[in-house]
Design a protein that fits this description.
Elements: E1 3-11, H1 17-33, E2 37-45, E3 56-62, H2 65-71, H3 75-84, E4 88-96, H4 99-105, E5 112-116
Length: about 120
């Protein structure tokens, strides 16, 4: 059963466009560094009145919960978190086994233009 780990990122106001792109590239590199991660999709916010201030989103796909559990303590994941944290004000993380579950929970709340990494 595929697990969708959804992360929403809020950048610090002083984060430059280059720093924002750096964080996005760090995320896109993770599948090549962590075999437990099948793929990742990233995207910038599309203006929406209920976006809660999040600037970017990512969906991490895992084959199952065990692979997600492998990913969390992986050194590459720890490194990515440490390297991106100076530019982030906050993040929201939610894992689900069905995207329709998430969509039903937050209908029309957040819209992102996603691209496959």
């Amino acid at each position: 059963m595929t697990i969708y780990n959804i992360a929403l990122y809020k950048f610090k106001s002083e984060a430059t466009p280059e720093q924002r792109e750096y964080v996005k590239e760090l995320i896109k590199e993770l599948p090549s560094r962590i075999s437990a991660l099948q793929s990742v999709i990233t995207g910038e916010k599309v203006l929406h009145p209920l976006d809660h201030g999040y600037d970017m989103g990512a969906i991490f796909l895992f084959e199952n919960k065990e692979k997600l559990d492998e990913f969390r303590p992986h050194q590459a994941h720890t490194d990515y978190r440490a390297l991106s944290s100076p530019y982030l004000e906050g993040a929201y993380i939610n894992a689900a086994n069905r995207l329709d579950h998430i969509a039903g929970k937050f209908p029309d709340k957040m819209v992102f233009d996603m691209e496959t990494a």
